[in-house]
């Protein structure tokens, strides 16, 4: 759809004007572009295989699409919010198809079984907060029911994925959402939200019970995951894990190996890294992937991008004059917080849907209601 829209604008001669009109928002993505360009230059200079160079071009296409989308949605706050909800609906369709495949032993689109599907679990955990924010302030009954349905499906997708990374990041961001929500001015929407949450929570418990009792594999995976959680608070368990040089305990030997690999990379090329070689792309850490691919310089750019994105969102939350606008930005802040926490344990650097949450956060940080309504307030540079 994005390619089709761009093609139509090119034919009409509007593409370049549209792209240039979004320059203020595009600047937010310059650090990401810098990371990709560093990795690409390193790959070309060291004459890496074409497949590894193409990885950098794939990531550049993601950043390029962000430039174009931020230009299309300039000064269109409501359209941006509806686009995010449309994205959430798309994730829900994927979850429902996975459940359908699981219940009927089908293989529609080759979608993976839900348990141990870290990609889908993480995607659900991130996307969850947008329909939740919309449901909290929506006054139209049908729209609110639709939003709660998205919340219901996304939670089930996250829960049944059995991804501990998704679970713990989701839990932390949910607490953060509650703190923000409590700090909002009092209103009828709070009591309505509490009532709706109770009803949806009861339905969720019933759905989880049905899933556990009907699908034995789900029961087995959940039992195994929950059995492991108490061990995380045991000092002896961590001591065993850190000294287990054969399997690295529950963390897996690949996470131990990547520490040795990143040490060798930093010794060889600490400033610029080694590009998006296959070993780096397979790291189970977003930060180690960026560090290995683009060095200390690239990691510094990514940290700068994240700090600017989060501070801009906090400013947008603080200056929003409408509850729905504030809630959507709170949802974005919680989503990217979960993403940054997951980055310690998962990479998913080539997953376009995961990167979309960075786009949503930047858009909602810049499309701030006070600016659109003419209220003059200073914004972070």
User: Helix/strand-derived class?
Assistant: mainly alpha
Low-pLDDT sequence parts: 369-381
Enumerate how many helices there are, as a single number. Answer: 19
| Oligomeric nature of the chains | single chain
Gross geometry:
globular
Distance between the termini: 33 Å
Description:
The chain has 381 residues and is mainly alpha-helical. The protein has one domain. It has 19 helices and no strands. The chain has helices at residues 2-12, 15-21, 23-26, 30-45, 50-72, 77-104, 118-127, 129-137, 141-160, 164-183, 188-214, 216-228, 235-242, 253-268, 278-281, 286-319, 323-342, 352-366, 369-372. The longest helix is centred in the C-terminal third of the chain and has 34 residues, at 286-319. The chain is globular and about 60 Å long.
Write a compact overview of the structure shown:
By secondary structure, this protein is an all-alpha fold. It has 19 helices and no strands.
Offer a few descriptive terms.
381 residues, mainly alpha, disordered C terminus
Please give the structural blueprint.
Layout: H1 2-12, H2 15-21, H3 23-26, H4 30-45, H5 50-72, H6 77-104, H7 118-127, H8 129-137, H9 141-160, H10 164-183, H11 188-214, H12 216-228, H13 235-242, H14 253-268, H15 278-281, H16 286-319, H17 323-342, H18 352-366, H19 369-372
Helix pairs in contact: 2-5, 4-5, 4-16, 6-7, 6-9, 7-9, 7-10, 7-17, 8-9, 8-17, 9-11, 10-17, 11-12, 14-16, 16-17, 16-18, 17-18
């Amino acid at each position: 759809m994005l390619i089709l829209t761009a093609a139509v604008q090119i034919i009409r001669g509007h593409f370049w004007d549209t792209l240039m009109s979004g320059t203020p928002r595009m600047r937010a993505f310059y650090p990401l572009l810098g990371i990709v360009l560093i990795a690409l230059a390193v790959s070309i200079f060291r004459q890496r295989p074409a497949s590894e160079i193409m990885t950098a071009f794939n990531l550049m296409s993601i950043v390029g699409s962000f430039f174009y989308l931020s230009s299309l949605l300039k000064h269109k706050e409501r359209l941006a919010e509806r686009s995010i909800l449309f994205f959430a609906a798309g994730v829900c369709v994927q979850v429902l198809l996975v459940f359908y495949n699981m219940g009927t032993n089908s293989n529609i689109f080759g979608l993976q079984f839900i348990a141990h599907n870290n990609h889908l679990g993480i995607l659900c955990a991130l996307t969850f907060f947008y329909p939740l924010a919309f449901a909290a302030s929506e006054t139209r009954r049908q729209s609110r029911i639709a939003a709660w349905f998205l919340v219901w499906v996304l939670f089930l997708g996250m829960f049944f994925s059995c991804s501990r990374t998704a679970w713990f990041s989701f839990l932390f961001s949910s607490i953060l959402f509650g703190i923000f929500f409590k700090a909002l001015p009092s209103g009828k929407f709070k009591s309505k939200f509490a009532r709706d949450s109770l009803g949806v929570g009861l339905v969720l418990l019933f759905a989880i019970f049905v899933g556990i009792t009907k699908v034995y594999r789900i029961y087995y995976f959940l039992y195994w995951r929950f059995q492991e959680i108490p061990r995380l608070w045991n000092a002896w368990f961590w001591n065993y894990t850190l000294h287990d040089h054969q399997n690295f305990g529950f963390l897996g030997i690949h996470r131990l190996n990547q520490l040795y690999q990143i040490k060798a990379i930093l010794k060889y090329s600490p400033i610029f890294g080694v590009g998006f070689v296959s070993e780096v792309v397979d790291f189970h850490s977003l930060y180690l992937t960026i560090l290995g691919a683009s060095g200390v310089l690239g990691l510094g750019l990514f940290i700068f991008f994240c700090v600017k994105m989060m501070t801009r969102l906090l400013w947008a939350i603080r200056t929003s004059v409408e509850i729905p606008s504030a809630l959507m930005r709170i949802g974005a802040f919680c989503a990217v917080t979960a993403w940054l926490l997951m980055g310690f344990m998962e990479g998913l650097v080539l997953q376009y849907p995961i990167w979309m949450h960075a786009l949503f956060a930047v858009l909602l940080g810049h499309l701030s209601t006070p600016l659109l309504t003419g209220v003059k307030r200073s914004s972070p540079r």
